[in-house]
Design brief:
The structure is a single chain. This protein has about 130 residues and is mostly beta strands. It has one helix and nine strands. Strands 1, 4, 5, 6, 7, 8 and 9 form a seven-stranded antiparallel β-sheet that branches. The chain has a two-stranded antiparallel ribbon with strand order 2-3. The radius of gyration is 16 Å and the shape is globular. The relative contact order is 0.23. The mean pLDDT is about 85.
C-alpha cells in the first residue's frame, strides 16, 4: 500500500511540475463579530507553496456572485501536493489578480492523503502577498 500511495503522490507532483506556480498564500484568522458574521483578527499566517493553477470546464458555479450560463465557461482550480497547508479562504495573488481558495477537496488513496484540489475565485488583492 505504501508503494502505491507514494506513486499517487508522485503523480500529483508530476502534474504540478508540468506547469508549476510558486504562490505566497495569506490566511486570515477570522473571529465572530457578534452579529452573525466574521471579521479578521490578528496577524495573518503566510506561507509559500508550489502549486498548479489550471482551467476546467464548468457548469454554473456556487462560487459565482451572479448566475452564468453553461458552455464555454471556465473555472480556475488549484492543485497542491499532500504537504501543502492549503485551506478554504486562503488568498493569494496570481498574474496580477487576487484569488481566494474555495472548498478544498482532499485527494486520497485508501486512507492516505496524496494531494489537495480546490476551485478558486477572484478576490481582493492582498497587499502582503
Amino acid at each position: 500500500m505504501a508503494a502505491v500511495t507514494s506513486q499517487a503522490r508522485q503523480g500529483i507532483i508530476a502534474q504540478i511540475n508540468a506547469n508549476p506556480s510558486r504562490i505566497r498564500f495569506i490566511r486570515l484568522t477570522m473571529v465572530d463579530d457578534g452579529f452573525g458574521g466574521e471579521i479578521p483578527m490578528g496577524d495573518p499566517m503566510k506561507y509559500t507553496a508550489k502549486v498548479r493553477i489550471s482551467h476546467e470546464s464548468k457548469s454554473v458555479s456556487n462560487l459565482e456572485p451572479k448566475p452564468v450560463g453553461l458552455g464555454t465557461n471556465l473555472a480556475r482550480y488549484i492543485l497542491a501536493d499532500y504537504k501543502t497547508l492549503i485551506k478554504e479562504g486562503d488568498r493569494f495573488t496570481y498574474q496580477g489578480t487576487g484569488w481566494e481558495v474555495g472548498v478544498v477537496d482532499t485527494l486520497s488513496y485508501g486512507s492516505e492523503i496524496v494531494g489537495y484540489q480546490a476551485p478558486i475565485k477572484e478576490a481582493a488583492i492582498m497587499e502582503d502577498c
